[in-house]
Amino acid sequence: MPIDVMEPGSPGWWMNRLWKQLEKDQKRFQILEDYYTGRPPLPWGSEATRSRFYRFQQTSRTNFASLIVRAPCERTGIRSVATAVDNDVDGDAQAWRLITGNDLDISMSEVARMSRKFGRAYLSVSAPDPGEELAIITAEDPRQVITEADPVRPRRVRAAFKLYHDSEAEMDVAVLWLPGEKWVATRPRKAATVSGRQRSGRVLGIEDLPRVSFSPAAFDMMPTQIEDPSQVFRSETYSVQDIPVEPVLNSEGVGEFELHTDLLDRINHMILQRVVIATLQAFRQRAVEQSSDPLVPKLPERDAAGNLIDYNDVFEAGPDATWLLPPGAKIWESSQSDLQGILAAVRDDVLHLSAVTGTPMFMFTPDAATQTAEGASKQDDALVYKVTDWNRSAGRSLARIIGLGFKFMGDDVRADASRIQVNWLPAERYSLSERAAAAAQAGTSLTWEQTQEEVWQMSPQQITLAKAQRAEDSVLALQQARLAAQASTPAVTSGPAPDAPAA
Known about the structure:
Structural class: alpha+beta
Largest sheet: 6 strands, antiparallel
Radius of gyration: 36 Å
Helix content: 25-40%
Mean pLDDT: 83
Number of strands: 15
Strand content: 5-15%
Shape: flat
Distance between the termini: 128 Å
Low-confidence stretches: 194-206
Number of helices: 13
């Protein structure tokens, strides 16, 4: 039965509305994915030589986009989560169990990567599976999921939509979340199998997803009451009124390199010029210059039999070759072009790319690491600020998802998202020598736990383990001190009392 999309506010109307918004972004997402996986548009060149220069164009592409995304993601990680129940330095153990039970300590790096690549990613939460205790929290790909924000409160989601293909069930599945409602529509379809060969003129990468489109006439809305308990594709209602999907936005809602693709294309174009020039001029060209004097004999065009002479064979280069030239003739040899100008132009463009993306220059060119420590620290500042800004925004999205997870678990005290605080790993990483110097300078101005957390950058788990080991070391040191004291005390011998002195 076709899905009704005409009634405003109905589930079918919302599905169709959100699908159109998601469909608009697909082309943009594909372009960003191509840049990230090292498959950006080939540098432009002459149409007449496109087939000949195709290999040159391929080898001229440098994957800076992936580096720009990975640089901040490598410094993103959850350290602990504090709630209204437990908000000390090591956080709430139950909240951390929810994190590790869903592998969020690992998958948050995937969320960070998608957010920085596409401009946004998503987190979703659902009730625990039957017989399980923990709510289910998953990372969602923005090519499959989209949300619509409340225009009055932009940070609040009022509807969410997901469209994906289930290869095992051979189904296209559309899921819509509204306050207290989850609607599921399906369409039987066997997706085309791809074996790594080219599709649409390009080789598939690990990030390629099966293409799915939503057509209200082809999908069937699943009912909320299904007799078969094994049926997983079902609509349902639940008591939680908040939408269990949260966007994790990158700065300005765009990818890290999205505003700088022209600069990436310019770098690849200049590299192409260098590759072509270096290849075509790998061997010096030689020619014979004949005398302009009309009295001096010229090289004949034909031999005695009247055949055209191929001077490529006559003047073949070789260690045992001897060339006989007519009087006045000279050998001309081409010189190679100076590539230093092109190399300098590429270095300047990479320097500009480092500046506009906030990626330290030493990550693009290893020789930049030889600069002063202060200069490297200044370069690192832009990356640190960028990571800190993303952590602050993503932390609130994650806090709301964790709060909804506790709601699904029936823990209303921990469900208060306003009192959930996500503690991230430090964005700025120090060397051991820097940590040791800072710890010595801090002295007693910081408590032992503050020194371990702020200076030595230890995680709560590492601090807990260190505390236990310190306690063990203290007990062991006390035992050793007692044994040493006993060993240094003279032994007291027992026996009959000595005779009393004579009066």
